[in-house]
């Protein structure tokens, strides 16, 4: 462990690394049972920069969802709307999926069945969310003849059954966890994992639309499939590879610097391919955000792995602020916040008909929705703990539930 990182860890009362360090470190109960972050500095067993990245991803997702559901023309054509739609792309879902793969890969011992069950639960939660956010309010609106917003939503989503079968990021997360859990013993070499991620990005356009509705979560196409497993599985795989690289590293600064250099190369390569690649018809096709070819994904990967070190540097440089604590809290309650904000948005849009707003007004509406979702998520977590008390765990075990 390099000497320049030890004083900071001593001040925080943290371990110097997975192998310990001179001077009586690590303290008892450290590192967190089942976790290994290599030389990366943690506070209370958590990576601050990763919490900030996940918190920002949730924030950007909410802003994008509000624009899509409430703003006229989904916010397109407006500077405010386009900004929030952009923030809801590369800094949001790809970052979340890379972080999920990283946390999964940081487990010292992964039980296959535990990962499969966790993935199956997230997959089922995706359809339960569809029922709660769209199908039920659409049925209520039809039964009560309250068509204030149902017409606009019907035009975008189809009927209640079509809305129930939407494939979104929770289904993607669940399937990704299942795949990684089943293949984990074979994915110890980061070079192999990166190669597999590139294969996923490359072959995905050849699979889209093959067979029918049953394979929609795997490689479906169209507006009803926002996040098919192919190509989006590539992002958690790259997060898993990053975890393996981090565990083999000995210096945090050098790890982040090398990550930046690789990210810049990948971003430039993807950008060049986007400019020179044919627009349609091949694995180099541009496509759209949800169904893109290899060049777009290379550009997004480059951005993500540049974004994460930038946040690492900022959390080390900028003093702790209320904003950082808030983003960390969002990260700790990520899944409940995501579910609750979509339920609030769905019922508001369909039953109360707040659609067709000016993009700036819709952007302002994101603030109370985010605050309400966060408070409800905290209340849910506290209530769950009272009903099912947590066992006494080693310090930092809070990270274990994040993957």
Walk me through the structure.
With 403 residues, this protein is mainly alpha-helical. It has one domain. Helix content is 65%, strand content 0%. The protein contains 17 helices and no strands. The longest helix is centred in the first third of the chain and has 32 residues. The chain is globular and about 65 Å long. The N terminus and C terminus are likely disordered.
Into which percentage range does the β-strand content fall?
Answer: under 5%
Q: State the total count of DSSP E strands.
A: 0
**Secondary structural class:** mainly alpha
What is the molecular shape? globular
Residue windows where pLDDT falls under 50 for at least 5 positions = 1-34, 391-401
User: First CA to last CA: what distance?
Assistant: 27 Å
Biggest sheet overview: none
Helical proportion, percent range: 55-70%
Using the CA coordinates, give the radius of gyration: 21 Å
Order of secondary-structure elements: HHHHHHHHHHHHHHHHH
Mean pLDDT across the residues is 84
Provide the number of structural domains: 1
Question: How many separate helices?
Answer: 17
Which key features would you list for this structure?
mainly alpha, disordered N terminus, disordered C terminus, 17 helices, 403 residues, globular
Task: Please describe the topology of this protein.
Layout: H1 6-12, H2 48-70, H3 79-87, H4 93-105, H5 112-143, H6 150-157, H7 160-164, H8 169-183, H9 190-207, H10 216-219, H11 229-232, H12 234-248, H13 252-276, H14 294-317, H15 322-332, H16 334-352, H17 359-387
Helix pairs in contact: 2-3, 2-4, 2-14, 2-15, 2-16, 2-17, 4-8, 4-12, 5-8, 5-16, 9-12, 13-14, 16-17
